[in-house]
Amino acid sequence: MRHPGHGWKARAALAIALAIAGATVVATAPAAAAGATATTLGDFETGTSPWSTTAGGGATASLSTTSDSPGTGTASARVTAAVPAGTAELFRSVPSIDARSLTLQVRSTALTALVVRLTDSTGQAHQQTVPLTAGGQWQTLSISQFAGGTQYSHWGGANDGVWHGPLTQLSLLIDSFRLSPGPSVTLDVDQVVAQGAAPPLAIQTTTLGNAFTEGATVSFDVQTAGTLVAWTARDTSGSVVATGNGTPANSVKTVSLGALPAGWYTVNVSAKQGDGSVVRGGTDISVLPASTLRERRIGAATHYSGPWVQDSIPLLGKAGLGFARDEAYWSSVEKSKGVYDFSGKIDSYTAALRASDVDHLNILDYGNTLYYPDEAPSTDAQRTAFANYAAASLSHFGTAHTAYEAWNEWNIRDASGPAGATAQNYAALLAATATKMRAVDPSVTIVGPALAPMNDWQTWLDQFIAAGGLSNIDAFSTHPYNFTAAPEVFMDHVNILRQKLDAAGHADMPIWFTEQGWYTTPTAPGVTPAVQAQDLARAQLLALGEGIGRYTVYDFKDDGTTATDPEHNFGIIRNDADPRGAYTPKPAFVAEGILTRQTADRAVDSVLSLGSGNYGVRFGARAGEPSGTRMEALWALSPQTWSVAATGPVTVTDLYGSRQTLTPDASGAIHVGVGTQPVYLTGPVGSVTTSSPFGLTISNAVAGVAPTATWHIANTGSTTGTFTLTSGGKTTTATVAAGETKDVPAALPAADEGAHTWTAVVTEGSAAIARLSVSAQVDAELQVTGSHALSATGADVLRLHVTNRSDVTVQLGQVAYTVAGTTGTTLAGVSVAAGSSVSTDVPFSQFGSWSATATAGSATATTSGTLAAAQPVDVPFQAVQVDGSVDPAVTHLPAQHLGADEQTITGWTGPADLSGDLWLTHDDSTLYITARMTDDTQYQPARAADIWQGDSMQIGVSPGWPGESRTPVSEIGTALTSAGPTDVARWLPVGATTDGITSAVARDDSQHTTTYELAIPYTSLGATSVFDPADRVLAATVAFNDNDGTVRRGWSSWGKGVAESKDPTKFHALRLMPVSAAPLAVTVAVREECRATAAVATVTATNRSPLTASVSVATAMGEKSFPSVLPHRSVTAEFTGQGGAIAAGKARVNAQAIHPDNRPSYFGRDVRLRSTTCG
Questions:
Q1: Does the N terminus or the C terminus of the chain have fewer Cβ atoms within 10 A?
Q2: What average pLDDT does the segment 625-631 reach?
Q3: CA 185/CA 82 separation, integer angstroms
Q4: Which CATH number fits domain 1082-1173: 2.60.40, 3.30.1340, 1.25.40, 1.10.760?
Q5: What residue spans define the domains of the chain?
Q6: CATH C-level class of 7-197
Q7: H/E element holding 346?
Q8: Rounded CA gap, 1174 and 996, in Å?
Q9: What is the reported pLDDT for 27?
């Protein structure tokens, strides 16, 4: 993945230079507002968090507290620094405060002035210099001009010299120019207070990252201008664990949730404002068992060498992670040839890692302009310079807690530079680097090639092996990202690697995953935070089980706060500027902390063989545990209950740390529900049976009402058994005779609307013998949904559905709607039977936002959406025989031509390179895609989900029209593989299957054409509640990937949003048309001629029908359209060849018209163009 560059260092250097040189005051900050609120940013009474220090340019700095005559209270912060050059910095991120002024107490005997840097909401840094009075006494500094002051400068963000609140970061800088005598200096700081209007609602964490230990009181602060704060905390099952409300004091309300058991909790917070309005927000909480364990096989990617501040480092240890993968960039370390300086930020963050008992995987990267201008070295001299830097890194950091990875993703980086991203150049770099490093310390661990399994990576790897690269690494590193498949799919990649390593004589070489992760965005292929948590856990457990030496989570912290940017959302903790609170946990942080506490210091015993879709990894005992102790991690792709042999009590721990102790029943087994979230069993456990005498299911779940649940019991014993099921204070007891099976209605607690998981414990006598779980979507009693649809006459309508989920008939009061500002009501007084729905169509004349509210007695349901205008493409009603040959009936329908305008292919040479025709058709149950593509070279080395790397077709489909933001988005592909079969792959929705989807792909080498046919049942696009084909509204894009024998060169795409990005707003709008009438009558004439030196082809189409028709003509020379051709009229399209010539080929003529009864008629025909040369 991308790693931070060095721009941040350049900006910091520029800022100091400007501060030294002096600058003109550009603007003043806003005047202090009446009724301003004081917010303490640092009194240091309980420590320095969240303040941190950093240093650069030869300076060093450390931060502590001191009780030596503090300015206020009992302690102050102390920065101890040496600044012979460069700068030392004390800084912190700031919660959302609309600060108007700032005061702070400072004391220093050597510092003559302090540089103050304030960062606004745009990321613009505003910097000024504040003089200090000699004498070393405490003095109070007041800053009321944020965009001004002495030696003012600004950069970054808006970069306009204007303050754009709120304040987001505060920095105090020491530089060598303001020291007397120096270079040693001590700066004491106390009582840092921001004055400004309190925000409507802002979260301020009082414990780093809201990361708590079991037994501690969970609390955080809410800053608000409001008059009443209310909160509700829920666990991962959706159950409420705490509620409360209170009045803020001085615009701050401390929310205390008491002591909570291990888990991840989300807290919804609201603040009632003075005008009666309510502002809503929230935060997240982690609670983990106390532990000093570190899982040395699992770490996380971090960027402390780049833009990250170091104050989140203790959270790595809190999660039990054993190492951080980070850098000491070559260009940062060696700024003068032969001089290697790791002081400042690098030494500071690595020392902080050691203080948290976290090791370091040090990436040796990237270029250095002292030696060459490019990123990657390409000559022996350049490689020697890099190797010297690597050796200096080893001399500095050693091997006790540091391993070294040579470069990052060489096979895809700097491909256009002199090194060309080639395997041979990387192997040469490795040879030089390993020689230098092993001369310093033969025990060093060198890792490479940090492979990005993209493009034709297998050929690259073969070349790397042939170049002798394996002899210079101690572990093989790879980055097996796959965002559209189950996490266990990485084993396909590992198996290929092991085959190649075995064949090369390196069967014992360890494989390390030095990057893998999932990002949490609202659009596919991003996943929900809960899915990120389970996917990371499953991947890590299987990786450990399969002998992967190290696993690196990418990434530890979100790199930003833009919800739709994948690079901003890989973290397992949130960004320091996140409105939910700095470094607050995503569910994956807790899941990580629980997993590491289960696996640390345990050797892998075995990977359990449990059948397709079922997984288990068995670990051995830790030191000090009974020798028979085992820890089994179990999960499955579908919900099940399994029986596990046991000889004593077993602790069952779920993904987020909830624990239950079970005792074996008379058969010597415990019983546990498993699913997509791993569960951990610790104790004297043995064999696993993927079935159980117990099961729990839910058939209906309505908010506020106990769900309809069934408890399955099969008494396999020899005596009658009495069993009790307990969940949330509800109990169900059943007596079952020996050999009898019963399905018993189960009492489970009611739940609120949304996803919910119920956990139940089964006891027999006084012994808990089973832990069952079941998840369901809890729906509101009354539901209303809406979708864009076409009426029987083809008119655009808003189709509203009202569903009664209760068990009695209800009478609707009405459904009130608004469409683009126009209001109305419908369905007034209509009765809706229990468990059924009613529907109605609302005509509209203007596209835009819409909303609808249904009422029935005291029940209310509301929904909203967007109706997006578009120029739709009509999809004819025509079934397709999927056999690899274009159906004759299809050829007579209008085709979408893919010519020069649709190419995104490097070095595209013309229609023979890649071009063709595409047809989309449908019937009552299926969407069909047919394409006949001209392609000079057919090449598809990949299989399954990797077929996009070779010649293949991909289609993206979503309900509704582009811009209506309806889900799910489906992405499906097909290809004729080099292995022979036609493969069908599905990337979206994540985890969806290709069941029911059929395809045929055929190649005609004599004609250089490839025919694709793909049939997608509507049921594969989602349930009718998601996409109802009766709505007749879809959106789609179709792309054709091109590979001529080396790498994917690019693609030809009808529409966008698939190949170049994943964005359904760029799809084409589609109208599913009714059964067509007789074909449209059109005649076509073609004439090729020379006009002076120009070769011109003239295509004349005559509409012989009684209907007005749209006509289009497509050739290799371009396309022309005629939207309204009257009956018995002709249109003429002229095309001029290049270079005075027309190549032999074809013109595609399409036409269509709509009858008064809304039935379409079509015409499609290819006419031959003769080769013509003029001049």
A1: C
A2: 97
A3: 6
A4: 2.60.40
A5: 7-197, 202-288, 295-599, 610-778, 782-867, 873-1072, 1082-1173
A6: mainly beta
A7: helix 345-355
A8: 54
A9: 27
Q: Which of 355, 331, 348, 352 is nearest to 82 (CA)?
A: 348
- Contact between 1151 and 1103 under an 8 Å Cβ cutoff? The reply is yes
**Beta carbons of 63 and 48 less than 8 angstroms apart:** yes
Q: Which CATH class is domain 610-778?
A: mainly beta
Residue 1036 CB coordination number (10 Å): 25
| Identity of the amino acid at 552 | T
pLDDT bracket for residue 10 (50, 70, 90): very low
The helix-helix angle for 457-466 and 423-440 (nearest 10°) equals: 50
pLDDT of residue 36: 59
Class of domain 295-599: alpha beta
873-1072 carries CATH number 3.30.360.10: no
Q: Tell me which residue has tokens 């020069």.
A: 900
Per the CB < 8 A criterion, the answer to whether 599 and 619 are in contact is yes
Helix H or strand E segment including 1151? strand 1145-1154
Q: For residue range 386-438, list pLDDT tens digits in order.
A: 999 999 999 999 999 999 999 999 999 999 999 999 999 999 999 999 999 99
Residue 730, token pair as written in the block: 């509800």
**What angle is formed at CA 514 by the lines to CA 510 and CA 518, rounded to 5 degrees?**
130
Tell me whether residue 333 is exposed, middle or buried, using C-beta atoms within 10 angstroms of its C-beta: 0 to 12, 13 to 18, 19 or more. Answer: buried
Instruction: Give the type of residue at 508.
Output: D
Cis before 894? omega within 30: no
**Other CB atoms within 10 A of residue 183 CB:** 15
Q: Tokens for 510?
A: 């360890």
Long-range contacts of 1168-1171 (CB under 8 A, 24+ apart): 1168/1086, 1168/1144, 1169/1086, 1169/1088, 1169/1097, 1169/1115, 1169/1142, 1169/1143, 1169/1144, 1169/1145, 1170/1088, 1170/1142, 1170/1144, 1171/1141, 1171/1142, 1171/1143, 1171/1144
Whole-Å CA distances, 212 to 74, 217, 236, 283: 25, 8, 16, 14
Which residue, 363, 365, 393, is CA-closest to 377? 365
Q: Summarize pLDDT for 107-124 with one digit per residue, the tens.
A: 999 999 999 999 998 889
* Reported pTM: 0.86
CA neighbours closer than 13 Å in the CB half-sphere of residue 73: 16
- Interacting residues of 624 by C-beta distance below 8 A, sequence separation 6+: none
Helix (H, G, I), strand (E, B) or coil at 384: helix
Cα separation, 611 vs 116, in Å, equals 63
Q: What residues contact 371, with CB distance under 8 A and at least 6 apart?
A: 337, 377, 381, 382, 385
Res 29: pLDDT: 33
Q: Give the architecture (CATH level 2) of 202-288.
A: Sandwich (2.60)
| 202-288 and 1082-1173 agree in CATH topology | yes
The 3-state DSSP class for residue 458 equals: helix
Total length of the chain: 1175
- Residue 20 pLDDT exceeds 50: no
pLDDT at 880 over 90: yes
Pick the CATH number of 782-867 from 2.130.10.10, 2.60.40.10, 1.10.10.10, 3.20.20.80: 2.60.40.10
Rounded mean pLDDT of 1041-1049? 90
- Percent pLDDT > 90 in the chain is 85
Q: Are 1084 and 1149 in contact (CB under 8 A)?
A: yes
